[in-house]
Amino acid sequence: MTELIVNPRFAETDAMGHIGNTILPVWLEDARTSVFEQLQPGVDIKEWSFIVAHIDVDYLLQIHYGSDVTIKVFVSKIGTKSFTAFHEVRQNGRLCATGAAVIVHFDYETGTTTELTDDHKDALQNFLRD
C-alpha cells in the first residue's frame, strides 16, 4: 500500500462547491506514481512500458475544498500482462470515493501488450492489500 495526501485547490471545485468529478482521476494517477517508481526506478519516459487500459471511479460522498484528502493505493490483482490498482479516497476520515485502474505492460514500438517480468511481479507484491 502507498498513500498520497492531496490538499484540494479552490480551482478544483465545481459550480456545486465540491471537488469536480474530473479531478479524481487526476489525483488517482498521481497517487499511483510511487507504484510506478518501484516498477521502473529512474526510467527515462522514452523507455516507459505501461499504459492505462481502464479506469473507474465510484463517488460515494462529496469532497470539499479546505481539508486534506488521503488517497491509499493497493494492488488488488496481478495478472500475466497487467495489474489492477485499487484506490480509496478519504477526507476527514470518511470514505468518499473508490477507484480502480487496470495498468497493462506495453511495448510502444510494436503496439502490443507484453508479459510482466518477474521483477515487476515482485515489486507489485509490496503493494498488495494486507
List keywords for this structure.
alpha+beta; elongated; 130 residues; 3 helices
What does the model show?
This protein is an alpha+beta fold and 130 residues long. The chain has three helices and six strands. Strands 1, 2, 3, 4, 5 and 6 form a six-stranded antiparallel β-sheet that branches. Strand 5 and strand 6 form a beta hairpin. The N and C termini lie close together (8 Å).
Question: What is the element layout, followed by pairings?
Answer:
Blueprint: E1 2-6, H1 23-31, H2 33-39, E2 50-59, E3 69-78, E4 82-91, E5 94-107, E6 112-113, H3 118-125
Antiparallel strand pairs: 1-3, 2-5, 3-4, 4-5, 5-6
Q: Write the H/E string, N to C.
A: EHHEEEEEH
The largest pleated sheet is described as:
6 strands, antiparallel
The shape is elongated
**Helix content class:** 10-25%
Distance between the termini: 8 Å
Radius of gyration: 16 Å
Could you give the count of β-strands?
6
Put simply, the count of helices is 3
Average of the residue pLDDT scores = 95
User: Which secondary-structure class do the elements indicate?
Assistant: alpha+beta
The poorly predicted ranges are none
How much strand?
Answer: 35-45%
